[in-house]
Amino acid sequence: MTGQITTIVIATAIATLAGCAKGPIHGQLTLPQGTSEPALLNYESGVFGKTGKLWMTLPTGEKFTGPYELDPYAPDKSITSTLAGDRGNRLLCRLTLSEPGTGPDGGGAVKCNLSTGGTFEGTF
User: Fold this and answer.
1) How many domains does the chain have?
2) Distance between CA 2 and CA 70 in Å, rounded?
3) pTM of the prediction?
């Protein structure tokens, strides 16, 4: 009996971990000097897609990371997340979802504002 329970727990854990989606969000990074270049914002969803993490590395090498959580009371079911940079800067991102309630996995658009100026815009 104990062996069956252990097998069920392990199978459930593997299925849960396999359900987490992740991927790049392709877009354009525009810096205050007006230069623009392709960039990636990455995401990894939690088990049900309502929470997860975002991260990005700028051309300067600064790395940004932060959690996100879907606000079920937001009228457009958007996600707002503040990513902390390893050099003290912030990246405020707003994801507008194509399929409200599903997290980034369902597609949409994102716009992020860098605390030092500049923006990242992309679709997923």
Assistant:
1) 1
2) 38
3) 0.80
